[in-house]
Design brief:
- The termini are far apart.
- The protein is built from 17 helices and no strands.
- The protein has a single domain, classed as Amino acid/polyamine transporter I, CATH 1.20.1740.
- The longest helix is centred in the C-terminal third of the chain and has 39 residues.
- It is mainly alpha-helical.
Length: 406
């Protein structure tokens, strides 16, 4: 009887950890930048933005499945795998991801401040500081790992449920969106939206969030692959559903002829759809997206440096605290980095070819993956994702320059 209870307890813990990893990846990609980018691009490109949504999901699949499987088989984090492929590459990857993570986290903190401002009328800077303190407390409590595994899925479900409800009320032109997902208008102009979405949902640290979480929680080796593949698929599905729900919610509003508030376009979508109640719902969605992304960004960014020295490994939680505190202070001093949210997504998209490319090379090295045979179709899928993001990344550089000048 005792053995059965132990087995049941083990399975429950395993399930909690898996769902924690799934939603850590998914909610890391569903931050304030995601809400801002999706709203801005949908209002600009209308139903044709469905093409960018579909393309980013396909690239998402190619990146996530490869990275989750190869890292877990090797039992090593992304920076260590990169160093095993080419000595020193891991340090470059870690530097780029930490810098990108900081940029994104400043935006996450800003979004959290705006969310609290919407809900309670508190100034965004004060709201950001409150959120930063909450995130720091989460990482310093005794059962921080368990708290994160439980909290992140709850926040994810809240966001998806509320955005789904708003989507239904806006009555979007789903048929047109389906057609434009494969036959968009102004194809060339969609390059920047594609690379920005990729950067915001699988670029930089985000691709590694779930895999690093599973490795840190003991999921390693080929025997873990069935569970890891399942978790990766659920993570991709979760992100995709949220992405589609938000796109359709915005499309329903703009297709009906409404003009979005330039100062806060995402909030105006909710307010137009449901009035003042919708505005408060937006505050909940924004804060949930922001706090979960603050946690995901800090945790994953620090996971890229903690293996470089025993002291970093020993005090990694304090590094996370410092990461959050630094991001919060920068926002409190500088203010809301509106353009930075979109630019950070694009830059993170440029990092993806390097990080994914190093992992794909690792899949062919016995010194990294042992006797594991990585599926050829998955490898090809990953190579296509690398090529597409390299080409799109170069083409988007001009778009980034235009945004910065604007």
């Amino acid at each position: 009887m005792g053995q059965n209870q132990d087995e049941l307890k083990k399975k429950n813990v395993q399930r909690r950890v898996l769902w924690g990893a799934i939603f850590l990846m998914a909610t890391s990609s569903i931050g304030p930048a995601f809400l801002t980018q999706t709203t801005e691009f949908t209002s600009r490109f209308m139903a044709s933005f469905a093409f960018a949504i579909l393309a980013s999901i396909i690239i998402d699949i190619g990146a996530q499945l490869n990275i989750w499987r190869i890292l877990v088989v090797s039992g090593e984090r992304g920076q260590d795998v990169a160093n095993m492929v080419f000595p020193g590459l891991g340090y470059l990857v870690a530097s780029l991801i930490v810098l990108g993570g900081i940029a994104f986290n400043i935006g996450n903190v800003a979004g959290a401040g705006l969310g609290i401002n919407v809900l309670f009328g508190i100034s965004p800077k004060t709201g950001a500081v409150i959120t930063g303190i909450i995130a720091i407390v989460i990482f310093t409590v005794k059962n921080a790992e368990k708290v994160i595994d439980i909290l992140i899925p709850i926040l994810g479900v809240v966001m998806i449920g509320m955005v789904g409800y708003v989507m239904v009320t806006t009555n979007p032109p789903v048929g047109e969106a389906l057609i434009r997902s494969v036959l968009p208008e102004n194809f060339g102009s969609l390059v920047l939206p594609v690379i920005t979405l990729v950067g915001g949902t699988v670029g930089g640290y985000i691709t590694f969030a779930g895999a690093h979480r599973l490795i840190d929680r003991g999921f390693k080796g080929e025997e873990a692959l069935p569970l890891v593949t399942k978790a990766a698929n659920f993570g991709i599905l979760t992100t995709g559903v949220m992405r589609v729900f938000l796109f359709l919610a915005v499309l329903g509003v703009v297709a009906a002829g409404y003009t979005l508030d330039e100062g806060n376009p995402a909030a105006s979508v909710f307010q137009i759809a449901l009035g003042d109640v919708g505005y408060k719902i937006f505050g909940i969605v924004l804060w949930s997206a922001a706090i979960s992304s603050v946690i995901g960004s800090a945790y994953t960014s620090v996971s890229f440096v903690r293996s470089f020295h025993p002291q970093l490994e020993k005090y990694y939680k304090w590094l996370i605290v410092g990461f959050i505190a630094f991001s919060t202070i920068i926002f409190a001093i500088v203010g809301e980095p509106v353009t930075l949210l979109i630019i950070a997504g694009s830059v993170n998209g440029l990092i993806l070819p390097l990080t994914l490319g190093s992992v794909l090379l690792a899949s062919r090295k016995r010194s990294v993956v042992g006797d594991y045979k990585h599926p050829a179709w998955m490898l090809i899928f990953g190579v296509v994702a690398v090529v597409v993001t390299v080409v799109a990344g170069f083409l988007s550089l001009q778009g980034i320059a235009d945004l910065w000048q604007g």
